[in-house]
Design goal:
Elements (H helix, E strand, L loop, with lengths): L2 H4 L3 E6 L3 H11 L6 E7 L14 E2 L3 H4 L6 E4 L4 H13 L3 E4 L2 H18 L3 E2 L2 H4 L4 H7 L6 E7 L2 H12 L4 H10 L8 H4 L2 H15 L9 E2 L7 H10 L2 E10 L5 E10 L12 E8 L3 E8 L3 H15 L8 H4 L11 E8 L10 E9 L4 E8 L15 E9 L9 H4 L5
Parallel strand pairs: 1-2, 1-4, 2-3, 4-5, 5-6, 8-10
Antiparallel strand pairs: 7-9, 7-11, 9-10, 11-12, 13-15, 13-16, 14-15
Helix pairs in contact: 2-13, 4-5, 5-11, 7-11, 8-9
Length: 419
């Protein structure tokens, strides 16, 4: 049998024709060797002018989901609830699915895995994690759970773009956000980006493929860049750091996994230091290979479309995720029993309860801004009422994980007696 005969002809039903959908349409027109065509596109607003033939479009989902000639559904909408209906129906109808909807996948990954197994139909979503970076397939195929020490990465191109503009070009947060939206990097609801929701959804997906962990995004400690202050940038520059929003998972000495999304100071010797604008960067650390770095555009029309295209190409050969860490190994276990070294800045000295710290290593107070650096029990961050609020910013240090539990000291005597 020839290679051409082994390849499956892909008749695509596309949901959504926004930035990524239109990008995919253009890419497919330029890639005839893929043996794939978009047969129908389901849209929400038919009155909008689109750069494609009018007869291609419909507002009826059934025109795609019930069409037996369509064997692949590509889902590129921003409504996670509607997307779940589309994806689950397609899988039940034994249509392969490609999706970029990280919220959908993060919140329903267990049900979606069950549907894939029940109907023996592939569901691929490389573009949902880091757009153009093939991190899911690498975690799925290359890294064994027992050998994987950790993952850390800048997985949200929008926030990275905003941080670059704010801290390097000195423009306002609001102006940087508008630029990110204009360029097509930010979500239609920018809070999903700037508050860390998009990043924690992606971390949830990566945990499934890295460690076989089924977690709900809201259960993971996370924050975004919405509370960062200009004083934080000054502090970072004085120390030679950059501030990045970093998603990470790390295997601790007891074998359990710590996972969170928080702003972090990044040193010059880190591979993430020079990841700027809409680019993503992911560092994967394993026992045998040490650190490996993946770098590429994490937002935008064509970078995301390229990952969708890669999944479509894999479907020609009936590729599917095997979820080896979940189904064939002992899945990892999340833990909150660890200590982190953090920096917290705020408006007034006692706005952050000093008893939250196990040890305070540095503090500064002025009439404009205060900050405290020290070691904190990670479980205390589960209560967000004291640190995840307006005018308070928490940033993790480069050497975030503290190996040994420090002895409890009287913080009042060490520091606050001087106030």
């Amino acid at each position: 049998m020839s290679i051409q005969q082994q390849q499956k002809k892909l008749n695509i039903g596309l949901f959504g024709f926004g930035v990524v959908g239109e990008g995919l349409y253009k890419v497919l027109e330029q890639t005839p060797t893929l043996n794939a065509q978009i047969k129908k596109v389901c849209i929400k607003h038919p009155e909008k002018k689109r750069n494609a033939p009018q007869e291609l479009f419909t507002t009826d989902p059934a025109a795609l989901l019930q069409d037996e000639s369509i064997n692949v559904i590509v889902e590129l909408i921003d409504d996670a609830d509607a997307a779940y209906h589309i994806v689950s129906t397609a899988l039940k109808n034994r249509k392969a699915v490609v999706s970029a909807n990280k919220k959908l996948i993060a919140e329903h990954i267990e049900e979606l895995i069950a549907l894939q197994q029940q109907f023996k139909t592939p569901f691929l979503y490389e573009s949902a994690a880091c757009a153009s970076i093939p991190v899911i397939r690498n975690l799925e195929e290359y890294y064994d759970n027992d050998l994987l020490h950790g993952i850390s990465g800048i997985v949200n191109g929008s926030t990275n773009y905003i941080l670059t503009k704010v801290f390097e070009e000195k423009i306002s947060f609001e102006e940087a956000l508008l630029q990110a939206q204009y360029e097509g990097f930010a979500e239609s609801n920018p809070a999903l980006d700037v508050e860390g929701t998009d990043a924690v959804n992606k971390l949830t997906i990566l945990l499934a493929h890295a460690y076989g962990i089924m977690a709900q995004p809201q259960a993971l400690v996370h924050s975004g860049i919405q509370h960062l202050h200009a004083a934080d940038a000054v502090f970072a520059r004085e120390k030679g750091y950059e501030i990045k929003l970093v998603a990470q998972a790390r295997k601790l000495d007891d074998g359990k996994i710590a996972a969170f999304v928080l702003p972090q100071f990044v040193q010059k010797d880190s591979q993430l230091f020079n990841v700027r604008n809409e680019y993503n960067g992911v560092v994967i650390e394993s026992r045998l290979a040490d650190k490996q770095f993946f770098y590429g555009k994490g937002a935008g029309s064509f970078p995301t479309a390229s990952a969708v295209l890669s999944d479509l190409s894999a479907l020609r050969y009936d590729y599917k995720y095997e979820y080896k860490k979940l189904l064939y190994q002992q899945p990892g276990q999340l833990t909150n029993d660890l200590f982190l070294r953090v920096y917290i800045s705020f408006d007034a000295l006692f706005h952050v309860p000093h008893e939250k710290f196990e040890r305070i290593e540095e503090w500064s107070s002025s009439d404009k801004r205060c900050h405290v650096t020290g070691i904190i029990r990670f479980a205390r961050l589960l209560d967000t009422s004291w640190w995840k609020r307006k005018n308070t910013s928490l940033i993790v240090y480069p050497d975030a994980f503290v190996d040994k539990i420090p002895e409890k000291r009287k913080v009042e005597e060490d520091v606050f007696s001087l106030v």
